[in-house]
Amino acid sequence: MNPATPSQFSEHRKRRRDASPPPRHFHGPQSHSRLSQRRRPWSFFQHLSDNFFAFDMGNFVSGLFGSRWSKDDGLKVYKGLLHARSRDLTVVTEDEAGTVQRVLDRRVKDSRKAALEAAVKRPQWQKREPYYKKAHKETRRNDTRLEEIEIDVKLHEERLAEIQKLNKAAKEDLSELYKPLTVEEENEVRECFNARGPSSKVLVLHESSNIEVSKEKFQCLRPGCWLNDEVINLYLELLKEREKREPKRFLKCHFFNTFFYKKLACGKNGYDYKSVKRWTTRKKLGYELIECDKIFVPVHKDVHWCLAIINMKENTFQYLDSLGGMDHNVPSILARYIAEEVKDKSNKIINTSSWHEEIVDDIPLQQNGWDCGMFMLKYIDFHSRGLNLSFSQENMKYFRMRTAKEILKLRAD
Hints:
By secondary structure, this protein is of the alpha/beta class. It has a five-stranded mixed sheet with strand order 5-6-7-8-9, sandwiched between helices. Strands 1-2 form a two-stranded antiparallel ribbon. The chain has 17 helices and nine strands. The longest helix has 28 residues, at 144-171. Helix 10 packs across helix 17.
């Protein structure tokens, strides 16, 4: 074989350069040498889909190869994928009742916005009851024995409280409070109840208070009748005198009459201190209210008698209603009164806002519609002695006879 000349060689090279590339064969795989594969480093990455670099969220691999895969956190390619598959995309939402709704064929243009909307539609977090409380309730509901035990405990506590109250009352000397009337005393009271003559006839006159009780007024002490102001106020005067006779046996008390609270609470704003300011001067009383242990204030509610007590020792206000009622306005007015009274008479300031209102719910209650006045007088009588209210509706007939006897003699025992 003859060697080729240079001109022939260049012509050969030129013809090879201009020649059309050989046709590709699709009927079988093409073979490549290892050397050719090493010379083409992009052959592996070119076969990778763009999705690989799209989900390179850290942009580590993407950054190695320039701007072909830009740094966009993969969001652009991810949006493209969502857009391409949006027709088959199913968005699952949950309503407030917890039921799942499937919404088909909903295009998602912004994935972040869709996620936020789904989060907003979820039920907000609510404070729930602790599990141990729920379990405790379920246990109590299922175990009826616990309820029976609880009822038994309450009954035993009530019985124990009654026994303690009786034991305390047993230690107190109540013989003087229930001393029976003699035959002469009973006859005298009955004669006054049934006395003949004009109803205006004066049976009793109390000179120091100038209170007189006529035959008509006296008959209010009969069973089934309402007590009137004259009888109540005269009996309160007798309690004052009893305390002066035997100061060691009784608490130091002040007894307002039935007209005091009406005067005090009759102002334009439901309060008028000036109208009762002169009622409690030291010249009239011989003492000041700040020196008392208890101050009794009768309160008349149209046809019903109640009692308010200003407890100066314990700094409390008590309201006693024989029907079990409560009027918070009365202690409020008396708190205002006692603060102004002490400042005016004793030149001292007391803060009644720190005093508390005692709700007395264990007092004896009347069982009819006419013994409220008698209950009020016995509330005063027992409290002035420092005793518990150990009486009931059954004692009212006796107390009426005894009060009538004491009024006729002008002396409270």
